[in-house]
Records
---
Amino acid sequence: MPDRIYNFSAGPATLPYSVLQQTAKDVVNFQDSGMGIVEISHRSPPFAAVIAEAESLLRELLAIPDNYKTLFLQGGASSQFFMVPMNLLAPGKKASYLNTGVWSKKAIAEAKLFGEALVPYSSETGGFRRVPSQGENQIDPASEYLYFVSNNTIYGTQYQKMPVAPDHVPLVADMSSDFLSRPIEVSKFGLIFAGAQKNLGPAGVTLVIIRDDLLERAPASVPTMLRYKTHADKGSMFNTPPCFAVYMVREVLKWLKNLGGVAAIRDSNEEKASWLYQVIDDTPYYRGHAEAASRSRMNVTFNLPTPELEKKFVAEAAALGMAGLKGHSSVGGCRVSIYNAMPQEGVKTLVAFMRRFAAENPA
């Protein structure tokens, strides 16, 4: 792939090369129809087959139980910050939120518009360097749900074990940045959502997996388009869906299945992360942001000895075909995003560069 670089951006992120090649053909002429995939009607049989296969693959890869609906929605994952409480919370009711970063803070702010948002755990005072361990937070059993963000792109933290909610309290998870990167037991959740632009496809579609009984919770005041039940009843076709993004999700899911599924990609992701963390642990030159027990397998964050060296590191890496390594503005430093489609060779190339850079640029 001489015309390709290694894209370590946090999102929109790198996509499988074979998927991009197939998409390039289908944008011009989809299934010899004489029309591109971006041109065909969402009501046509060819697109109906696309969205049906995407759902089928998703259900197969995650072993989604029959009593869950899968929805392809618009508005980005940020729209879920208000759709969740709009549908599942109500005035006079409360929900619990675990605050582990910017995205959970934004969700908490939205929840307060609809009910009481309890925060039984926050790592903000420590710089969001960790997520809670099991049993570290006390969840009010009267909560309508327990909300958390499974992986934090900005700070490089991730739950290695999912939180446990009290009986009858649904678990709601924002998995936008680690969805399908490892196996999960869907039946332990009430609702899962994920923007596509990390592990699933391009920006433009958000996946929602929701348990059937939660579809009935929305107050009568919720607008039609913002009800999960509206989209569940119409198979995500209440209005025109983001057809191109759904098509690409299908292609990525096909790619993932051919690799061996979610367990296989988990093993690859763990290897990639271990190589990076080994460099960080081998020398004080690179200082990881996240505490060891909370380290993300998707976003590896670290600092160099000085901001000047960080700037030089990012520039030299980019010149060598490794892009997207600048850290988020709120924490600085560097960030390496190694989502499912980042090939192991890309991480090996970066690791070699990191070792060489440290040797050639002493603090």
---
Amino acid sequence: MPELPEVETIASGVHQRVHGQRIVRVWTSGKPQTFKTPEDEIATALTGARILSVRRVGKTIVMTVARGKTSVELLIHLGMTGRLLVSAPEVPRAVHTHAVLTLDDGREIRFVDPRRFGRLSLQPQNEFYAGPGHEPLTISLDEFVALFHPRHTAIKAALLNQSLLHGIGNIYADESLFRAAIRPTRQAARLTRAELARLRTALVEVLRHAIELGGSSVSDYVDADGARGFFQLEHRVYQRTGQPCLVCGTPIQKITLAGRSTHFCPVCQK
């Protein structure tokens, strides 16, 4: 599933390419599980509206459009395999395309999702979508400590809790915990302030570096142009089971934690 850096890369890329454009036509596939808001409502709200911005909130892409003084937000969650592409009309549409927004310059914004775990929905008019949790890139140290100190769950599980920090998934939880030298099974409430400060710093550094490299393409992820990211080349533990730790040479271990595969170095992470 695309995480914060991948969603940020897509949202930023789409914004750069389409903001200011007007949506002249909306096509949807009729696959009901893709749409949390009825398709005709989405088409009515978007047709004729101008795109003001495309931004990321957690793992959700938020497209703000306006017609006159009325604004509405289209929420796009990519699920496991979703893609949001900006394409020329002559480029053949992928088989699993579920929504197409045709712009006034002829280009198309296409939502493609083979497994149909992604969702499209409308936020109520003139309401600002803020997401379920805190923003990892801007949370202060005091807020970060207050968020995790009361949690009697493993720190890896707490990092994946979207109601605490939104946007963090398996890849960046594992990579941040490694860089902070914290074992993923440690109880969050038992971490010291210094350890949580180290984790916050590592998390921000990993996320920003991943954004710079266009995200991690370990499965289906591509950006708005269909290009793959490069941060997977920087992974130090994620999906490196059995390979030597890049710091100490100990084989990387994998366990299941909170129902998710978890990768760590048993020597470097205490």
